[in-house]
Amino acid sequence: MANTKETSTNNQNKIFITDCNVTYAVQLVGGRWKLPILLQLQIEKRRFGELKKIINNITERMLTLQLRELEKDGLITRTVYAEVPPRVEYELTKIGKDLMPVCTELHKWGAKHKMELFEKVTTLK
Fold first, then answer.
1. 1, part of any domain
2. pTM, whole model, 2 decimals?
3. Distance CA 51, CA 41 (A)
4. What is the pLDDT of residues 92-119, one digit of tens each?
5. CA torsion angle 35 36 37 42 (round to 10)
6. Which of 97, 88, 107, 99 is nearest to 21 (CA)?
7. CA 42, CA 103: separation in Å to the nearest integer?
8. Which domain holds residue 108?
9. How far, rounded to the nearest angstrom, does the alpha carbon of residue 95 sit from its chain's CA centroid?
10. CATH label of the domain that carries residue 100
């Protein structure tokens, strides 16, 4: 793989993501599926199949990709048990648990904002 020029936009974006704390945090939990996964793991450790059933409309491929990213970023751990059939469980790490109050508040804000927007749209009809 070729080295990236220091002046390239791609390199500048990487520097910004690591320098700006908010951008760094949003990048870790950004995307459509990471927050719902984290919120489910806040309740208890879960197996892949449980997450697939609980989180509506997520594909197996997307769930796999998101779990891998969350694990790579240190927000969750994946434990494989030597059993037949194999059992794998996912749970929050300490860093993931530290993030949960922020996720919970974001969840509350989203519910409130969604309700206000819904009420505004229905009154316009």
1. no
2. 0.77
3. 9
4. 999 999 999 999 898 899 999 988 887 7
5. 90
6. 99
7. 10
8. 10-124
9. 13
10. 1.10.10.10
Residue 57's φ and ψ, nearest 5 degrees, are 70, 5
Query: What token pair was written down for 119?
Result: 């009420």
pLDDT tens digits for range 57-85: 999 999 999 999 999 999 999 999 999 88
Contacts for 54 with CB less than 8 Å, ≥ 6 apart: 40, 46
Helices (H), the chain: 9-19, 21-29, 34-43, 48-54, 60-72, 94-124
Q: How many domains does the chain have?
A: 1
CA 27 – CA 7 distance, rounded (Å): 22
> Which residues face 88 on adjacent strands?
80
Tokens for 111, please give them.
């519910």
